[in-house]
């Protein structure tokens, strides 16, 4: 009999498992991960940015977890020797009509306690990023860069040192909740457990549905974000991180420039509908999963409302020149030939039946399960704080 079974070996699952073992060492805790390594999906495919808490509505779960998680992450990395660089970033209003939203971001940053945040003119922006174009900007000193796969490996190491068990290559195939325990069946074994913690990311809704009889009120819609890399001889165009003012209607930050912790500069991502949940390439198609997305009433409402924006994103996905044009809004000197095809990530975006793209974290509890059903960016930055929040819900059961 296992006390707690965590499903998902990404950054949120590992942080949750680690927090449970740290707070209650006597509990038996296992993590089940279907891949043969940790951080194989969302965590290992993100841009490696340590977010400051600038964007998030004060008092929201995103804001509180990001700000607390930021401090917890840096403390953990200092103790465990995980390298990071707090290089700062600028957020750029490229046209006058974006200044109002820039003002809103600045006020949010102040309300969220970001010290050193400052408004900057174009001349001041160019002292930080000499090749940028824009009207006004914000300098955010807290933003940094890191390798979140290394962070996950450190979480896993500490978890195991505390007596936790990490089972790689075990895909959950059945989950039967009972009155006193649940039975979790994988491709390799069978586990009886008092509580399931679902941190399955792109499949979190599927696992959540197994934990209850009533249909859950949301579905994961996968959005692929594609990156280009800037060729080495043009990396001088970007010193650190350059972001646009995000569209407040969408939970995406827009194409931006990011210096990477291991060297190099990435440009992107866009946000296009993926044709399967782990569809990292344009050619990746799972007809059953794609149909589930198209058939979801909430997605149909999103598509009806934002089809023009969706087509624009799709066009940029297939047109390097269109992608370049979007990047030139921030750095006019960047040229199509400067871009080399990079990687891609897939974001697990929860969408409710009414067409709402959930912007905040979503945790659904049942008698025998705690389901983390929406943990979008900044979940990596916030991971230890989210893990603490979830672990408190778990420990209240014991």
Describe the structure.
This protein has 398 residues and is of the alpha+beta class. It is built from 10 helices and 20 strands. Strands 5, 6, 7, 13, 14, 15, 16, 17 and 18 form a 9-stranded mixed beta sheet that branches. Strands 1, 2, 9, 10, 11, 12, 19 and 20 form an 8-stranded mixed beta sheet that branches. Strand 1, helix 1 and strand 2 form a beta-alpha-beta unit. Helix 1 (11-23) packs parallel to helix 5 (148-161). The longest helix has 22 residues, at 297-318. The chain is globular.
Helical percentage: 25-40%
Q: Helix-strand pattern, N to C?
A: EHEEHEEHEHEEHEEEEHEEEEEHHHEEEH
Mean pLDDT: 94
> Count of helical segments?
10
Q: How many whole angstroms does the radius of gyration measure?
A: 21 Å
- Please describe the biggest sheet, giving its number of strands, its sense, and whether it closes into a barrel: 9 strands, mixed
Q: In terms of topology, how is this protein built?
A:
Layout: E1 2-7, H1 11-23, E2 29-33, E3 49-50, H2 61-80, E4 84-85, E5 89-93, H3 99-111, E6 118-121, H4 122-128, E7 136-140, E8 144-146, H5 148-161, E9 165-168, E10 172-177, E11 182-186, E12 190-198, H6 204-210, E13 218-230, E14 241-244, E15 256-259, E16 265-268, E17 272-273, H7 287-295, H8 297-318, H9 320-328, E18 339-352, E19 362-366, E20 369-374, H10 383-395
Parallel strand pairs: 1-2, 1-12, 2-9, 5-14, 12-20
Antiparallel strand pairs: 3-8, 4-8, 5-7, 6-7, 10-11, 11-12, 13-16, 13-17, 13-18, 14-15, 15-16, 19-20
Helix pairs in contact: 1-5, 1-10, 2-10, 8-9
Describe what is shown at a glance.
This protein is α+β, with helices and mostly antiparallel strands and 398 residues long. The chain has helices at residues 11-23, 61-80, 99-111, 122-128, 148-161, 204-210, 287-295, 297-318, 320-328, 383-395; strands at 2-7, 29-33, 49-50, 84-85, 89-93, 118-121, 136-140, 144-146, 165-168, 172-177, 182-186, 190-198, 218-230, 241-244, 256-259, 265-268, 272-273, 339-352, 362-366, 369-374. α1 (11-23) packs parallel to α5 and α8 (297-318) packs across α9 (320-328).
């Amino acid at each position: 009999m296992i006390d707690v079974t965590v499903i998902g070996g990404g950054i949120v699952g590992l942080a949750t498992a680690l927090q449970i073992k740290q707070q209650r060492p006597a509990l038996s805790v296992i993590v089940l991960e279907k891949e043969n390594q940790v951080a194989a999906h969302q965590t290992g495919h993100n841009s490696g940015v340590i977010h400051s808490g600038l964007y998030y509505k004060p008092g929201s779960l995103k804001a509180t977890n990001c700000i607390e998680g930021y401090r917890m992450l840096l403390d953990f990395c200092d103790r465990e020797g995980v390298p990071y660089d707090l290089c700062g970033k600028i957020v750029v209003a490229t046209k006058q009509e974006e200044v109002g939203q820039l003002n809103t971001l600045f006020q949010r940053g102040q309300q969220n306690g970001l010290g050193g945040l400052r408004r900057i003119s174009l001349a001041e922006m160019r002292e930080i990023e000499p090749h940028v174009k824009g009207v006004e900007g914000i300098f955010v000193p807290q933003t940094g860069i890191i390798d979140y796969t290394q962070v996950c490996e450190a979480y896993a190491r500490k978890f195991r040192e505390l007596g936790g068990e990490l089972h790689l290559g075990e895909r959950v195939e059945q989950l039967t909740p009972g009155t006193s325990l649940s039975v979790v069946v994988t491709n390799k074994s069978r586990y009886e457990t008092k509580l399931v913690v679902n941190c399955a990311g792109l499949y979190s809704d599927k696992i959540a549905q197994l934990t209850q009889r009533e249909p859950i009120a949301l579905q994961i819609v996968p959005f692929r974000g594609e990156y280009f890399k800037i060729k080495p001889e043009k990396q001088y165009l970007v010193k650190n991180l350059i972001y646009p003012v995000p569209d407040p209607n969408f939970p995406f930050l827009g194409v931006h420039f990011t210096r990477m912790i291991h060297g190099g500069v990435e440009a992107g991502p866009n946000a296009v509908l993926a044709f399967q949940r782990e569809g990292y390439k344009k050619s990746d198609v799972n007809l059953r999963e794609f149909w589930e997305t198209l058939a979801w009433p909430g997605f149909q409402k999103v598509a009806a409302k934002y089809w023009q924006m969706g087509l624009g994103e799709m066009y940029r996905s297939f047109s390097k020149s269109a992608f370049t044009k979007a990047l030139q809004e921030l750095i006019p000197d960047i040229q199509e030939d400067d871009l080399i095809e990079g990687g891609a990530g897939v974001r697990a975006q929860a969408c409710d039946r009414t067409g709402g793209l959930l912007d905040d974290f979503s945790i659904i509890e049942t008698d025998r399960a705690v389901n983390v059903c929406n943990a979008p960016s900044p979940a990596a930055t916030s991971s230890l704080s989210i893990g603490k929040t979830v672990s408190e819900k778990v420990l209240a059961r014991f």
